[in-house]
From TrEMBL:
The lineage of its organism: Eukaryota, Viridiplantae, Streptophyta, Embryophyta, Tracheophyta. Transmembrane segments: none annotated. This is non-specific serine/threonine protein kinase. Residues 71-354 form the Protein kinase domain. The keyword rRNA-binding does not apply. Its EC number is 2.7.11.1. SUPFAM superfamilies: Protein kinase-like (PK-like) (SSF56112). Belongs to the protein kinase superfamily. It catalyses: L-threonyl-[protein] + ATP = O-phospho-L-threonyl-[protein] + ADP + H(+); L-seryl-[protein] + ATP = O-phospho-L-seryl-[protein] + ADP + H(+). InterPro entries: Kinase-like_dom_sf, Plant_Ser_Thr_Prot_Kinase, Prot_kinase_dom, Protein_kinase_ATP_BS, Ser/Thr_kinase_AS. One of its GO terms (molecular function) is protein serine/threonine kinase activity. ATP binds at K109.
Length: 400
């Protein structure tokens, strides 16, 4: 779970007709619409705030403290700008605290009292994830709002974040095909958000916010910065610039104008990290190498130089044609001109075609190997022996 912060302390708000101006959403407007999978929702008031989902469990602070063993250090599994994430256990039927290593494992995110994101982002996340359901979005089970305590309860994803697998020393190596699988899943999650009747812009895509289940299926997490997309023919919404350095789109940083194409840019950066095994921003490097996008452009533009960009941990175990396709996809996703970037649905289609082509090639190879093994071996008969013995021998020097 990475930290989020304001990239620009103050942003001029565009009041032109081509933009829509409003504060970060508290109430999403797509509850129960086709495609969201959210079902019926209701409004629940908690201490002066409104939770727009009846599907979520309201936990007591005492129960979550017990479930996490009093938020002990050995239960800590993550930390970010929002707060701390702890591992806990609850009874699957009653949702009450259960004994360690029994019942349902949960991840409990506890807001820091001085946390930058604060209560507003906590409520935004509750309301988005309380109503949006998709295999590639993390499942929010419930929340706690007692006094100054603000907590969120999620499904537990045992493989942790994509960031840890790509960059942590001693982490499990992600093979090429697993990287493509993760990219496809993340693209599906973003495409789902963008294609809703009332569009949602995620605004904080990065490797630390992509969590992995036991089978390395990715799920987008941390929706505190999510925002409703433009409506009524508007091309963008104008807002204070929020996000993470290295992932935020240049036009958004410069103007505060936000559209779904900002998410496409961030996705291009994540794809580049999957290719290269390098951080989006690395302050330990010098000059242009600090910013991954700036450093990578010359290699992405050259088929002959692309191998210099590839993650050395892959040890060359990847399809050169697939790597070139992904590199080309990165280039169009990180275009400076947002209008030239593709829609996420187009990005998803390209990645799925890549996956389907690879699967078809593997299937054809498997069938060929099976057919070769199934060819019957004809037994030699006496006629074969007789025929071979009757053939004239080639003359050798010893025969002369």
């Amino acid at each position: 779970m990475g930290g989020c912060y304001s990239l620009i302390s103050s942003t001029k708000v565009d009041n032109s007709r081509s933009s829509q101006n409003y504060s970060d959403p508290i109430k999403p407007s797509y509850s129960g619409q086709s495609g969201s999978g959210g079902g019926d929702t209701g409004n629940v008031r908690r201490g002066g705030e409104e939770i727009y989902s009846s599907n979520l469990k309201a936990f007591s602070f005492a129960d979550l403290r017990s479930a996490t063993r009093n938020f002990r250090p050995d239960s800590l599994i993550g930390e970010g700008g929002f707060g701390y994430v702890f591992k806990g256990w609850i009874d699957e039927q009653t949702s009450t605290p259960s004994k360690r290593s029994s019942g349902q494992i949960i991840a409990v995110k506890r807001l820091k009292p001085e946390g930058f994101q604060g209560h507003k982002e906590w409520l935004t996340e509750v309301n988005y994830l309380g109503q949006l359901h998709h295999p590639n979005l993390v499942k929010l089970i419930g929340y706690c709002s007692e006094g100054d305590n603000r907590l969120l309860v999620y499904e537990y994803l045992p493989k942790g974040s994509l960031e840890n697998h790509l960059f942590r020393r001693g982490g499990q190596l992600l093979p090429w095909q697993t990287r493509i699988k993760v990219a496809i899943g993340a693209a599906r999650g973003l495409s789902f958000l963008h294609d809703l009747e009332s569009q949602v812009i995620y605004r904080d895509l990065k490797t630390s916010n992509i969590l992995l289940d036991m089978d390395f299926n990715p799920k987008l997490s941390d929706f505190g910065l999510a925002k409703d997309g433009p409506t009524g023919g508007n091309t963008h919404v104008s807002t204070q610039v929020m996000g993470t350095e290295g992932y935020a789109a240049p036009e958004y940083i410069a103007t505060g104008r936000l559209s779904s194409k900002a998410d496409v840019y961030s996705f291009g950066v994540v794809l580049l990290e999957l290719l290269s095994g390098r951080h989006a921003v690395d302050k330990s490097k010098s000059g242009m190498e600090q910013i991954l996008v700036d450093w990578a452009i010359p290699y992405l533009n050259s088929k002959r130089k692309l191998f210099r960009l590839m993650d050395s941990k892959l040890e060359g175990q990847y399809s050169k044609n697939e790597a070139l396709t992904v590199a080309n996809l990165v280039l169009i996703c990180i275009e400076n001109d947002a209008k030239l970037r593709p829609q996420m649905s187009e990005v998803l289609k390209t990645l799925e075609n890549l996956h389907d082509s690879n699967r078809e090639n593997a299937s054809n190879l498997y069938r060929k190997q099976n057919n070769d093994q199934k060819q019957p071996q004809r037994r030699r008969t006496s006629a074969d022996v007789s025929s071979s013995s009757s053939k004239p021998r080639s003359r050798r020097s010893s025969d002369v």
